[in-house]
Design goal:
Protein-Tyrosine Phosphatase, Chain A, alpha/beta, 23% strand, 24 strands
Length: 484
């Protein structure tokens, strides 16, 4: 594609060199540049891409897009733009021929419930015979083929490449998570959304956004930029549900498990094996449990109806939807033990899951194993300590992904949030494997054990190294050992 076509719709200040040079690929990482590529220099959170323009040219870049200073390389076209981060997203959209315009693209943003909701939408529409794509924290899928996921929202080049592959494969729908980081970094700029969902917003990612107000503003950007022909489905049970959509041009719809809304749901019966729901006046059984999952399922239902699906078919298919990996994923063993592995890594997420297990577990002992990630928002650590002590009969505090922090120091900050009595009876085990094993080996008959924080993740980050570690594998191996 010619450079001038790739730059269409981008605020270009000046171009040095030919604007009709042929570009064969895009990159914002000089190490991935190949002959014929366009290199977009972006000021990143840790690295300034402008420093690597000479490396990109040495690797064969034929054109440069930049924002700062003056770049006049001999024999290479250079376009100075107002905002190179925004240009990265728009060039990717142009280069891959606007793939989102050929799909019914639905995004969801919020603190909790994103992965579950988009994965269930993908399951639902696939079960109704549609060719679908999925972009989520857990995995990316194109018509049943799994493509590993590294971030909640991929970088703009990878994102548009995946969407283009979906179009080529004949996908009609794509369901994707939209993170606050991606909105702040313009990763989804240029994409056309058929609809957007707001799940909820609670304390999270303040290590990046610094304030809750900024976190809220970034989430809201998704709906502020929604096209008029799209729909915005918002959760009225969250106090910021109406705030999210107050400036959107899209058609606004609401859902609620507590009051009046366009789409409504209530839990009629609930147990460890599932719940009976009244969904929009009709009853359906689901293998999911908890009020938070009732909200997720209601968002799925409302989205399906807004996309034109038949109500009766949707309810029938929804009753067969299965657990999302690492989201209240049950592993059962001897001694009537139930172990739930869940990704809950925010105060609200942990409280939702513990509260649910406390309510449906009734008289069973509830044991909680969890930790908090290193190099992330420290303010939530004592809060999560207090929540674990409030709902669980026994708490084992351990490591999550400590990264470059001392795991013992993280545990001490979690411990500080517990009241003295809870602090004294809790266990503190730095080794996560040993913590999980201890919870299972010492659990009384009939206990429910929650292993929280990592869910579907199959790794642990200690220092700069990433080691294989899967909570579910440890749980299964320990339960097998217990039964042998």
């Amino acid at each position: 594609m010619k450079l001038k076509d790739i730059l269409e719709g981008i605020e270009v200040i000046s171009i040095n060199g030919a604007d009709d040079v042929e570009v064969s690929s895009l990159s914002f990482d000089s190490r991935k540049c190949t002959p014929g590529c366009l290199f977009i220099a972006v000021n990143g959170t840790a690295v300034d891409g402008h420093k690597y323009i000479p490396d990109a040219i040495a690797a064969g870049a034929v054109a440069i897009v930049y924002q700062d200073g003056e770049v006049r390389p001999e024999g290479v076209s250079a376009a100075k733009v107002r905002d190179s981060r925004l240009a990265l997203a728009l060039t990717a959209d142009n280069f891959y021929s606007h793939p989102s315009r050929s799909l019914q693209l639905v995004g969801i943003t919020g603190t909790n419930g994103k992965s579950t909701t988009v994965t269930l939408l993908y399951q639902l529409f696939s079960s109704m015979g549609y060719c679908c794509g999925l972009l989520s924290t857990i995995a990316n899928y194109i018509d049943g083929e799994e493509i590993p996921a590294d971030h909640t929202t991929p970088d703009p080049i990878q994102l548009n490449r995946l969407l283009a592959q979906m179009v080529i494969r004949g996908c009609q729908y794509c369901f994707m998570e939209i993170s606050s980081h991606s909105l702040a970094q313009d990763r989804v700029a240029g994409l056309k959304f058929a609809g957007g969902i707001f799940s909820n917003i609670t304390h999270d990612h303040l290590d990046y956004h610094k304030t809750f107000a900024e976190y809220l503003r970034c989430k809201k950007l998704f709906f502020d930029n929604m096209p008029a022909e799209g729909f915005a489905l918002t959760n009225l049970d969250d106090r910021n549900g109406t705030v999210m959509v107050q400036n959107t041009r899209a058609r606004v719809y609401t859902y609620s498990c507590r009051g009046m809304a366009d789409f409504r749901c209530k839990i009629i019966e609930e147990g460890l094996d599932g719940m009976l729901l009244e969904m929009d006046g009709r009853q359906m059984w689901s293998s999911f449990i908890g009020a938070h999952n009732a909200h997720n399922l209601l968002a799925v239902y409302g989205t399906a109806i807004l996309l034109g699906a038949d109500k009766e078919e949707v309810l029938v298919k929804m009753s067969a939807l299965h657990t999302v990996p690492g989201r209240l994923e049950y592993i059962r063993g001897g001694e009537d033990l139930t172990v739930a592995v869940d990704y809950a890594h925010s105060p609200d997420g942990l409280e939702n899951v513990l509260k649910t297990l406390r309510e449906v577990g009734r008289e069973r002992m509830l044991i909680c194993v969890f930790g908090c990630g290193g190099n992330r928002d420290k303010t939530k650590r004592p809060e999560m300590g207090a929540i674990s002590a409030k709902y669980a009969d026994r708490v084992i505090v351990t490591s999550d992904n400590p990264r470059n922090e001392d795991p013992a120091a993280i545990i001490a900050e979690i411990r500080a949030g517990m009241d003295p009595r809870a602090r004294a009876r809790a266990l503190y085990i730095v080794d996560r494997k040993e913590a999980i094993r201890t919870a299972i080996m010492t659990a009384p008959e009939g206990a429910v054990i929650l292993v929280a924080g990592k869910g579907h993740e199959d790794y642990q980050i200690i220092g700069e190294q990433k080691f294989h570690f899967d909570d579910r594998e440890i749980v299964r191996a320990t339960l097998d050992e217990l039964e042998s």
